[in-house]
Structure formats: structure tokens, C-alpha cells
Amino acid sequence: MSEPRRTARESPIPDGTAREVLVAPHPVLSSVAEPVDPTAPEVVAAAADLLATLRGEPSTTGLAAPQIGLSWRLIAFDTGLHPRSRSWAGELVVANPRLARASHWNQGREGCASIAGLTADVLRATRITVHGHLPGTGEAVTIDADAFEARCIQHQLDHLDGLLFLDRVAGALSLHRRLHSCDA
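The chain above was modelled as a monomer; its predicted structure follows.
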């Protein structure tokens, strides 16, 4: 049985408005996102919208700003309720995240809110360290993640570089029809 959702880090991010999640082949999904000033009011507002959109997608554990139409380096994630999650950084938005360390690679099934009906086996690190900044305060943050949370974060980082999980698929035999929400 899953643990109940835990309390997120206290954040200066206000309530946002859920936005439409873009679907492939929208051009913003294949563009490299631009760095942001994490303290800029428009970035804080975008972070709030990203969280509101994530909360409104019950089977989704992460979103990147390009998925809501913003070509900005901003990701949101919360893997606390996912059955394959071990580490849990909380419900978090990170500005300008960058992968600092990755190790222990394996294949795992992934889906995406921007690609309906498909999942695929994708090679990802199962232990990562990511550095970034919190929207609002600009405070530096370091996230050490493993297992599913590491996979989720790497998936979001790919979105910032204009990549979809399908770009990482080894071949057609790695593709699967999505059968249930735990495939994400």
C-alpha cells in the first residue's frame, strides 16, 4: 500500500492555474529550453502553474515547462505516491536543474503526458544528483535521487533539452501500448 502524500517543502510559490499539457509533435517539445532567473515574478508564476498542472494529472509524476508551452528550464515532480519510488524529495519545482552525477544504469518502463498511449523501455541512471535553484527564493538546492524518482527527474531534464523518451528508445521492440497508470 502506498504511503499518504507527505508534506512538501515550504515554498514561496503561490497557487497557480493548471494549463493544457502539449502533445507531440508540438515544436516547443523539441526545442532546447532557456535558463531562467528563479526569482523573476513570471518564473514564480510559471512554477505555480507547473505545479497546478502536475496536481491535475493524477497519473503523472513530473512535468517540464516546455510541456505547458514555456521554453524555460523549469521542472516539477512528486514521486511520493508512485509504487516504484524509494527516494522522495517532496513536491518540488526546480529552476535551471543540471545533472551533476549519474550511476547504476538500467532499463525501465516510461510513459509521458505528452505522448498518449505509449510506453517504452528506456536506459536511465538509478542514482543521480541534480543541482538547481528554488523558484521564488533562488535558493540553491541539491537533490540526491534513486530508483523511480531518478528516472522521473532525468525524463524531465530530457524535456528541457528538447528530447522525448521516444528519442531514447533502442528500437521498435522497446515500445509498448500503455495499459495502466503505473507505466508512467
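The longest helix spans residues 41-55.
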